[in-house]
């Protein structure tokens, strides 16, 4: 099936419509309506049994996609359990639909890997580290760690979308990026509400810890996925800049702080 083209303008429109959802503050009711509408309008993506990817590009791409696929697969039991403690049934439903969107991404990635004659992983240490970190404290910690994975995922999928020549794969990645843009704003809005009454010093401390963890994760990511980035004609330094820019936007939206005012002063 031919997917609709997802141009840059559509990404920008998605970003601003997600932003608009949080304009008057985070509302789980509004986000639930968003997730329901997103489910209804989600195009059916079917990746053919063989995909058009040059042979040299396949091993590094399979290596990277296997790791993302396993990260998107989780059932989110722990996240659901924490969300239940918020006493907000709409937020619980949002988390449930968010997890289903991630599982949908996992299925698309699995089809891509199979189309390149790759196999799926049953576990990977990076996924276990993320799970352990997410469970360390409470829901807010889980969302902060989750957002690190969301930022890295969104940047990597956008890189794939922009640099893969196969139009079907490029479009499939674009559609995943659109979902990830919604996820970023959903979690950022939730955190902003959680921290709206926190003193600036507390938010600065949180941002310092979050930034430290984010840049550690970025270093590990670059080391593990360098070959895929190079195969996609993207220099690791360039990719790091994209990660940095996205993280700065997320930190501003989550903690109402400019990254520079905390880290560079
Ligand atoms: Fe995802
Ligand atoms: Fe996501």
Account of the 3D structure:
By secondary structure, this protein is mainly α. It has a domain at 11-194: Ferritin (Up-down Bundle). It is built from eleven helices and no strands. The protein has helices at residues 8-21, 28-41, 58-73, 77-84, 89-115, 125-134, 139-163, 167-194, 200-231, 236-255, 259-263. The longest helix has 32 residues, at 200-231. It is globular, with a radius of gyration of 18 Å. One fe (ii) ion binds next to helix 7 and helix 8. One fe (ii) ion is lined by residues 102, 150, 153, 180, 183.
Q: Give the overall average pLDDT.
A: 88
From the alpha-carbon coordinates, what is the Rg to the nearest angstrom?
18 Å
Structural class: mainly alpha
Low-confidence stretches: 1-5
Q: Assembly state here?
A: single chain
**Distinct ligands, ions and cofactors found in the model:** fe (ii) ion
Helical element count? 11
Shape: globular
Strand content: under 5%
């Amino acid at each position: 099936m031919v997917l609709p083209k997802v141009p840059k303008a559509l990404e920008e429109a998605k970003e601003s419509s997600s932003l608009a959802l949080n304009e008057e503050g985070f509302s789980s009711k509004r986000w639930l309506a968003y997730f329901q509408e997103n489910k209804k309008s989600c195009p059916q993506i079917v990746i053919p049994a063989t995909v058009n990817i040059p042979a040299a590009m396949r091993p590094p791409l399979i290596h990277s996609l296997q790791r993302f696929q396993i990260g998107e697969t989780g059932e989110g039991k722990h996240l659901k359990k924490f969300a239940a403690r918020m006493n907000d049934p709409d937020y619980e439903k949002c988390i449930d639909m968010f997890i289903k969107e991630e599982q949908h991404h996992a299925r698309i990635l699995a089809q891509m890997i199979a189309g390149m004659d790759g196999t799926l992983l049953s576990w990977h240490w990076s996924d276990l580290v993320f799970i352990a970190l997410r469970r360390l404290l409470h829901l807010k910690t889980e969302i902060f760690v989750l957002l690190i994975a969301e930022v890295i995922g969104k940047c990597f999928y956008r890189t794939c979308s922009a640099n893969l020549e196969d139009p079907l794969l490029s479009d499939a990645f674009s559609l995943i990026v659109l979902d990830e843009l919604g996820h970023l704003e959903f979690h950022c809005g939730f955190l902003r509400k959680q921290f709206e009454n926190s003193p600036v010093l507390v938010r600065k401390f949180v941002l310092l810890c979050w930034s430290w963890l984010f840049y550690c994760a970025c270093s590990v990511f670059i080391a593990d996925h360098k070959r895929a980035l190079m195969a996609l004609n993207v220099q690791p330094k360039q990719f790091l800049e994209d990660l940095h820019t996205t993280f700065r936007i997320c930190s501003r939206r989550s903690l109402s702080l400019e990254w520079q005012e905390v880290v560079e002063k």
